[in-house]
Design brief:
binds 5-deoxy-5-fluoro-D-xylulose, 21 helices, alpha+beta
Length: about 550
């Protein structure tokens, strides 16, 4: 008797990925389809089309459907046993939107198992190229939405974020403003009938497996500037500010752990899935990554990449004009926060090249040869316009808070690393994050292989740092959520469901006295940050 398995899907920007795990959480299959390489007929770059205005960015919907056909055929050819899949879930790139044309629901429901799905659905989309998260063409719609609800902070208090160009509500508003006839084409049926016609990429992907329109989940719905994150219902003032009859087109949002139903007959007949295979609500890629990293309350995940991204588990968030508060995908009573710091590894590499002859070993030696706290020297390093906070340029201050033009090389290196991590703690705490006794920092990305850098991170947060591999965290998190969905109704936390998964590896613990040392420095850093924040009207500092 073959062992039961669970599938996790990730409809990300550049590729479609799938992971199968067994009941012991061991990976038994993984595969991917790269959109540019494997589907060249769609002529994408990085999975997207960047339009001539350099602001509009879209991706072809049928490319996503065809990628699913391809990956399922690859699995079938490899002899994958679909009949043992007990449940599946998935993730999609956040904020993107799919516009189903009138009548698509019948075509989706009755797709012939003799044909690939992309052939059945080829005329089902009112917009063939969906707007995605890389789009920044909706500045006017963002201003209109913030004005309609009483300002940026008010919108953040309602939806968890101020208006962002990539957020779905503003994208829908642009389509309604610029293509009202297309907007009218998207299907409209009574609310409550679980029918709807505008999907996120995540709920669109779930619809393909369900053979019906899948609802938007609370967590990915938090990335639309439309959902009230406190009572998890659509905000009437936000919907009305974006487009008419929007609630009929979105349907009712659902908890992210919801079992939506059984897999569509199309997959049973074409691939041999079991009729009992359950579809668990899909969610956004970042919420799915939180599940894949198995974050728990008090944890903070830091991805040290080109830009540095923080995932926080927060019980009582305070939405701000920076960062994003989302409904937690694995615990409907709590929240997750996303914070992005644009000046990440490229900034670290520039200082390494200039102050450590391009060598990470020399960079690490400089960190070892300088004292924690850097004798009160502080620095802000933003080669490109930073978004957290909005600031640009390099600004150095000595222990008397006097601006200085430069630091000795090893002081510069420590000022960069301490500054980057103090900023992360300050802005995380502004969003309501609290370092707790059980706090763990889960570090990933290139710089997480450098223990000297991690030691500074541990000291600034006064918390142990673990390293994890997040290469497939969204996919793996989706497979974990597929298992969790089957038991979530019994209030079993995800942590219990995935306790057999490989543990993160402890890398460093805080140096004794770190909290006492960095507490006053964090206060100084926050005060000085106010001086460097970008003010287009003031002379450069
Ligand atoms: O826009 C983002 C999050 O707000 C990106 O991380 C997308 O989710 C990437 F697909």
């Amino acid at each position: 008797m073959a062992a039961p398995s669970f599938l996790g899907w990730d409809f990300s920007t550049q590729q479609l990925k799938v992971i199968a795990i067994d009941e012991h959480l061991r990976v038994i299959y993984e595969d991917n389809v790269n959109f540019d390489k494997d589907l060249p007929e769609f002529k994408t770059q990085g999975g997207a089309h960047v339009h001539g205005d350099r602001l509009t960015v879209t991706s072809p919907v049928l490319m996503w459907v065809k990628a699913l056909d391809m990956i399922l055929e690859k699995m079938k050819s490899s002899g994958f046993n679909f009949s043992q899949v007990r449940a599946l879930s998935g993730a999609g790139q956040q904020h993107g939107s799919v516009y189903w044309k009138k009548g698509s629901i019948q075509i989706l429901k009755n797709a012939s198992p003799k044909l690939p799905l992309h052939q059945a659905l080829k005329a089902c989309f009112a917009i063939s190229d969906s707007p995605i998260w890389m789009d920044s063409s909706t500045a006017s719609q963002c201003s209109a939405l913030e004005n309609a609800v009483g300002g940026a902070q008010r919108l953040a208090n309602i939806t968890g974020s101020r208006a962002y160009e990539r957020f779905t509500g503003n994208q829908i508003a642009k389509i309604y403003n610029q293509n009202p006839e297309v907007y009218a084409q998207t299907e409209l049926v009574p609310v409550g009938a679980l029918q709807k016609r505008i999907s996120l990429v995540s709920s669109f992907a779930a619809s393909l497996f369900l053979g019906a329109y899948a609802p938007i989940d609370y967590s990915d719905g938090s990335g639309m500037n439309l959902l009230q994150i406190w009572d998890k219902s659509w905000s009437a003032s936000c919907l009305d500010a974006c487009a008419p009859e929007l609630v009929e087109k979105l349907g009712n949002p659902v908890p992210s752990h919801s079992v939506l139903g059984s897999i569509s007959p199309y997959y049973i007949q074409r691939y041999g899935f079991s009729p009992d295979c359950k579809i668990v609500a899909f969610t956004g890629d970042n919420p799915a990554s939180l599940a894949g990293m198995r974050l728990e309350e008090g944890d903070i995940a830091i991805s040290l990449g080109t830009s540095d991204t923080l995932f926080l588990w927060i019980r009582e968030p305070t939405p701000a004009l920076e960062g994003h508060i989302l409904c937690n995908p694995v615990d409907s009573q709590t929240y997750m926060a996303l914070l992005c710091f644009k000046n990440g590894s490229l900034m670290r590499e520039r200082i390494r090249n200039e102050c450590a002859s391009g060598s990470w070993d020399e960079f690490s030696k400089a960190l070892s040869s300088t004292v924690a706290g850097n004798n009160g020297n502080l620095g802000f390093y933003f080669d490109v316009m930073e978004i957290t906070p909005e600031a640009v340029g390099v600004h150095r201050f000595n222990s008397d808070n006097q601006k200085v033009l430069n630091f000795p090389k090893e002081v510069e290196i420590r000022a960069l690393i301490e500054g980057q991590f103090m900023a992360k703690r300050i802005h995380a705490e502004k969003l309501g994050y609290k370092v707790m006794p059980q706090t763990r920092i889960l570090a990933t990305g290139g710089a997480s292989h450098n223990k000297k850098i991690l030691q500074v991170l541990s000291d600034v947060f006064n918390a142990p740092v673990y390293t994890i591999d997040t290469a497939n965290s969204a996919c793996l998190g989706s497979a974990y959520r597929a298992i969790h969905g089957l038991v979530a109704e019994t209030n079993v936390p995800l942590a219990d469901v995935v306790k057999l998964a490989p543990e993160p590896r402890l890398a460093v613990t805080p140096t004794a006295g770190a909290e006492e040392l960095y507490h006053p420095l964090l206060k100084r850093y926050a005060e000085l940050e106010q001086k460097v924040i970008y003010n287009p009207t003031s002379s450069c500092l």
